[in-house]
Amino acid sequence: MPVTSAQGIVATAPSSAGSTTRHGYTYLPALDGLRGLSVVAVLFFHAGHLRGGFLGVDLFFALSGFLITTLLIREVESTGRVDLRKFWGRRMKRLMPAALATLIVTTVLLAWYGQVAEQAHALNDGPWAQFYVANWHLLRGSGGYWASFALPRAFGHMWSLAIEEQFYMVWPVAMLVCARTGARYQRVLVGLIVVGCAASVLTMVLLYDQANPTRVYMGSDTRASSILVGALFATTVMRRAVSAVHRAIGPLMQWLCVGLVVVLGIGWATIDGPKSSWLFQGGLFGHSAAAALLVALCAQTPHGRVSRVLGTPPLRLLGTLSYSLYLWHWPIYVLANEERTGQSGWSLLGLRLVVSLAAAVASKYLIEDPVRFHTGWLRGSPAVLSFVGVMALGALFWAMLPQPDTAPAAFDPARIEALRPTTSTTALPAAPGSNLGIPGATSTTFGKQRISKVLFLGDSIAFDEQPAIEAAIRAAKVEVEVAAFPGFGVLSEKVDVWPIYTDTIARFAPDLVIYQLSVWDLGTVAQQRVAYERLVQLVRGNGSSLLFVTPPPFAAMDPKSTLPQLPDIAVSLAQRDPTRIGFVESVAAWGIAFALDIDKDGVPERKPDGTHICPAGAARFAAWLTDELARRYDGFTPAPVREWALGGWRDDERYRVPLGICANVR
Fold first, then answer.
1. Other Cβ atoms within 10 Å of 175 Cβ, number
2. Is there a cis peptide before residue 658, judged by omega within 30 degrees of 0?
């Protein structure tokens, strides 16, 4: 997130390109406009309305590198050195007040209105965010960058500000070292930047893990290239190169700007981060390089059409508010969720944007600008002591706040015992708005078969259900194994499950294989059918029976998902061989729509990510499943829920991480 004003950018640009600021620098409105577009992209991405909007951060990074390096070069050219204390002092005055206010105000509001998980994450993440190492803290316990925004982590966005501040701590020192090499220091600087970019990109490629790219996305070392490429375009060598291109192609320069805007815009609209492995093999650097080139071109042609459009008042205003908007928007999104506001979709987004804009305006004009422009008297030792004092008070704030109880909420087995599933052979009514989208789905049944071994297959949902399923089926005196793998189903692009399934079925020799339809079964309907037919052949080849079970409803679903077609495929396969293959809807266990707390007793059955399962939900599903198995098969008598639901499995780590994810709800 660039937190340096778009001032004093281009030594080669005429001073008439914009007004002169109080610092005597030339103001370039187009660069503020770019910041405005970038923050809008991030705001829409975090609301789930712009698939590739996360790439707006890369434009922020490139612009920050360009702006900061320009100011440092100007200081070296005029004084021959870099005053580190003044530079870091300006950065702290610009960054710290609003950031600390965001952290404290959000934490206090969550203490009043937040759920346990929200409070726990704020208290856990806040100190790291205050000291600008949030990215490394989040990496240490991250379940994934994209997944983190489905969880109540109010400071989950502070990672990018941490990376920028770490750059601000290191880069002026590097500039100072370069400045001491003599009159041709910029050649040394360019060489340093090129080597730094290459090392950063190479590190990203080597450390990339397709199953979880968060390490390379949020690491300071792997993201340095996005900032350094902006710094490269601030050097005299690159300025002259851009100027030469401008002289050579003249009016065509504007078409180059238009092309870059279009390319970046298409990327923001279409690129799906988790599925785009090329991003982490040079793609992010390429995007940042294109963004840095656009910044340099706009600075070179301040009167061009693209620069004038980017410099229009609305975009310029958003640019001046971009730091404040970025700081406040995500805590507001967390606080103003569907449950608290009663809104959803575009109406919820509109509410969030209005509140975020109001908070940003208040932050800028009541906190940031007064500290930035009206504390010139605070210099030297008093400034250092003030900074240390403020940071110490912030640390004391975190230390004094009581920690909430983040243990998984205890559920009453008697409530689950009282539940009974609907008759599985009866056609279910159409579920209005059901995430599965199958009208009148009918479960299939077949002749009684004796079972003594059950194998349960699935993805991360089944992984959350696993402890309860194992406890419930073993209590029924039946052997059970679960092969559940977070992040992939039978069509996973990450891991080939077929060797695992084949080996497990051959070794365990189950009488019955249960497959819970997977949210991770991507691909076309035809590809899904082929995969499901392969599963049928594998199971029948072992002499086992197969039962398809639908997953629980989800809070939200990608409109391009083919998940709604999976039950139809399973039903058609069951109809081919009703004696060996079955299908059952789990709507009796979950209901037709997502609910965090299904029976409103303060004990959540589902996790707030809208997908996964808490202990109460796992027990609820296991009780329903064992009743269903008893109805369908011989040799299976469910045990009372109290005999298996009170075991230590309820405190499994999958229900404790992230903090408070399954704690009591208000």
1. 25
2. yes
Report the 3 state secondary structure along 589-603: HHCCCCCCCCCCCCC
Tokens matching residue 603: 């004990």
For residue 635, pLDDT beyond 80: yes
Of 292, 261, 80, whose CA–CA distance to 193 is shortest? 292
3-class DSSP string for 186-240: HHHHHHHHHHHHHHHHHHHHHHCCCCCCHHHHHCHHHHHHHHHHHHHCCCHHHHH
**DSSP code for 386:** H
**What's the pLDDT tens digit per position in 392-401?**
999 999 999 9
Greater model confidence, 661 or 17: 661
Task: Convert the pLDDT of each residue in 245-287 to its tens digit.
Answer: 989 998 899 999 999 999 999 999 999 887 788 999 999 999 9
Question: HSE of 174 in the Cβ direction (CA atoms, 13 Å)?
Answer: 18
Query: What is the torsional sign of CA 597, 598, 600, 604?
Result: negative
pLDDT at position 14: 30
Give 251: exposed, middle or buried? Use CB within 10 Å, 0-12, 13-18, 19+. Answer: exposed
Contacts of 183 (CB under 8 A, 6+ apart): none
Residue for token pair 């291109």: 245
**What is 264-315 written as a DSSP string?**
HHHHHHH--GGG-GGGGGTHHHHHHHHHHHHHHHHHH-TTSHHHHHHTSHHH
CATH 3.30.70.1350, applies to 437-655 = no
Give the residue among 395, 656, 621 at the shortest CA–CA distance from 514: 621
Amino acid at 616: A
- Of the candidates 256, 223, 263, the one whose C-alpha atom is nearest the C-alpha of residue 242 is 256
529-538 average pLDDT score: 95
Please determine, for residue 653, whether its predicted confidence score (pLDDT) is greater than 90. yes
Which DSSP string do the residues of 422-464 spell out, in sequence order? PPTTSPPPP-TT-SS--TT---B----EE-SEEEEEESHHHHH
Domain-by-domain residue ranges, the chain? Answer: 15-87+102-397, 437-655
Residue length of the chain: 666
CA pair distance 608, 596, nearest whole angstrom: 7
pTM: 0.84
Q: How confident is the model at residue 372 (pLDDT cuts 50, 70, 90)?
A: confident
